[in-house]
Specification:
Monomer. This protein is α/β, with parallel strands linked by helices and 448 residues long. 27% of the residues lie in helices and 26% in strands. The protein has two domains: 2-23 and 237-447, Enolpyruvate transferase domain (UDP-n-acetylglucosamine1-carboxyvinyl-transferase, Chain, Alpha-beta prism); 26-234, Alpha-beta prism (UDP-n-acetylglucosamine1-carboxyvinyl-transferase, Chain), CATH 3.65.10.10. It has helices at 26-37, 52-63, 99-109, 130-138, 173-183, 201-208, 239-251, 270-277, 322-331, 351-361, 400-409, 432-438, and strands spanning 6-10, 17-20, 40-46, 67-72, 75-81, 93-94, 116-119, 142-144, 153-156, 161-162, 165-167, 186-187, 189-193, 214-216, 219-223, 232-234, 256-263, 281-290, 293-301, 335-338, 366-369, 372-376, 394-395, 417-420, 443-447. β18 and β19 (293-301) form a beta hairpin. α1 (26-37) packs parallel to α6 and α4 runs parallel beside α5. The structure holds shikimate-3-phosphate (S3P). The site of shikimate-3-phosphate has 10 residues, from α5.
Length: 448
């Protein structure tokens, strides 16, 4: 019997109004478990994302002997075991769909005295891992991949890692974080230089756990052999999840939405900068700090958007939000051009091709580029049978962000939009359908 397919059917039109809080930040949730586990003493976490990706990280540490209670309504309690207290798991650690779990754990586990194998689902098993295994090997790690440089990753015990001074060839927070986490176990200093700023949650959170991290311009360094001390962490709502609502409210006439407690770390706010440059009406209210991270309530109202050339320096700051931004671009007046985003091709799906196929399916004129896309603003059709008799649903290729992006497109579509392969929305945004419906999206899910 074939696997059931979770589908969305989204009715056209409507508007988004009211207030809501999207779930906790995925990047920060992963790091909270990792650092709490290797800290000394207890850590209490609130606002933890109970999505499959962050839970994969949590379960991995339980398998390595860490006592963790929860999550219970976003509350997690971790009894840290210290840098050297992790134990071998009796089976491979399953990272599911989560690239962050696999790449960060490769670094954190590279210097352990026990062997470990990291496995993932079909999508994760196709994603490039040499970007972490090569510099980790240069530090003295013994890591195997498939001949294609993909998972499973097999880590052999090491007698010790050496610090590294690494200029990153791609702007990747996962690579930076992986090396910094390995650096905790290395002798001497580990430094990573970024070609462009990427999310700095690892650096901020290490500091919150009392570990010294030094930054000078694009170079970030730490010295191995220190200790982390358990603490309290409060995780902001995920701007990457808020992004669907920022776009939905921007494109749907008469929308007015308040998104509560969203993380607005400067390394993550590309979606706000880009939507504003397109004419978006976005206000940041009640700015404050939560757990070392800046947070605000975000008010977004409908606006007439115009196409822009997306500034290349905004790309790493909006890397996960670009699928949603493509939906905004399709509703804008004129052309939007994105370049410098080749990384989109190696996310949970090839997000350039998969978004281009879906947009084309809905009647939007696009041109794919090796590193981006050209999108001509237009009108979304529908996935209902058209004059050619086609009525296939939008294909997400199992990518959560593709599914949620096209759900928002329905707000401006001429007919219903059907979207298939949506089960992975649970990796980052459990409860998406109910939350979106509560502010006005006419969305229903069903198994087909
Ligand atoms: C993440 C970094 C980004 C992002 C991913 C989460 C992180 O990946 O796309 O969803 O938590 O460090 P890259 O580092 O590969 O750009």
């Amino acid at each position: 019997m074939g696997q059931l397919d979770l589908r969305y059917l989204v009715e056209p039109g409507g508007r988004l109004r009211g207030r809501l809080r999207v779930p906790g930040d995925k990047s920060i949730s992963h790091r909270s478990i990792m650092l709490a586990a290797i800290a000394e003493g207890e850590t209490r976490i609130s606002g933890f994302l109970e999505g499959a990706d962050a839970l994969a990280t949590l379960h991995a540490f339980r398998r390595m002997g860490v006592r963790i209670e929860g999550p219970d309504q976003g509350q997690v309690w971790v009894r840290g075991v210290g840098l050297r207290g992790l134990r071998a798991s009796d089976r491979p650690l399953d990272m599911g769909n989560s690239g962050t779990s696999m790449r960060l754990l490769a670094g954190l586990l590279a210097g352990q005295s026990f062997p470990v194998t990291l496995v993932g689902d079909d999508s994760l098993s196709k994603r490039p891992m040499r970007r972490v295994t090569e510099p980790l090997s240069a530090m003295g790690a013994r890591i195997g991949t498939t001949p294609a440089g993909t998972a499973p990753l097999t880590l052999e015990p090491t007698t010790g890692l050496q610090g590294i001074d690494y200029p990153m060839p791609v702007a990747s927070a996962q690579v930076k974080s992986s090396l910094l986490l390995a650096g905790l176990y290395a002798t001497g200093e580990t430094c990573v230089t970024e070609p462009a700023p990427t999310r700095d949650h690892t650096e901020r959170m290490l500091t919150a756990f009392g570990y010294s991290v030094r930054r000078r311009a694009a170079r970030v360094c730490l010295t191995g052999g220190g200790r982390l001390t358990g603490c309290r962490l409060s995780i902001p709502a995920d701007i990457s999840s808020a992004a669907f609502f920022l776009v939905g409210a921007s494109i749907a006439p008469d929308s007015d939405l308040l998104l509560e407690g969203v993380g607005i770390n400067p390394t993550r706010v590309g979606v706000i900068n880009i939507l504003r440059a397109m004419g978006g009406d976005i206000e940041l209210l009640e700015r404050r700090l939560a757990g070392g991270e800046p947070v605000a309530d975000i008010r977004v109202r409908h606006a007439r958007l115009r196409g822009i050339r997306i500034p290349v320096d905004q790309v790493p700051l909006a890397i996960d939000e670009l699928p949603a931004i493509f939906i905004a671009a399709a509703c804008a007046e004129g052309e939007t051009l994105l370049t410098g985003a080749e990384e989109l091709r190696v996310k949970e799906s090839d997000r350039i091709q998969v978004m281009a196929d879906g947009l084309t399916r809905l009647g939007i004129a696009v041109e794919t580029l090796p590193d981006g896309m050209r999108i001509q603003g237009g009108t979304f059709g529908s996935t209902e049978a058209d004059t050619t008799g086609r009525h296939e649903a939008i294909e997400t290729h199992g990518d959560h962000r593709i599914a949620m992006s096209f759900a928002m497109a329905a707000l401006r579509a001429q007919g219903p939009i059907a979207i298939r392969d949506c089960a992975n929305v649970r990796t980052s945004f459990p409860g998406f359908v109910d939350l979106a419906a509560s502010v006005g999206l006419d969305i229903h899910e069903h198994q087909a």
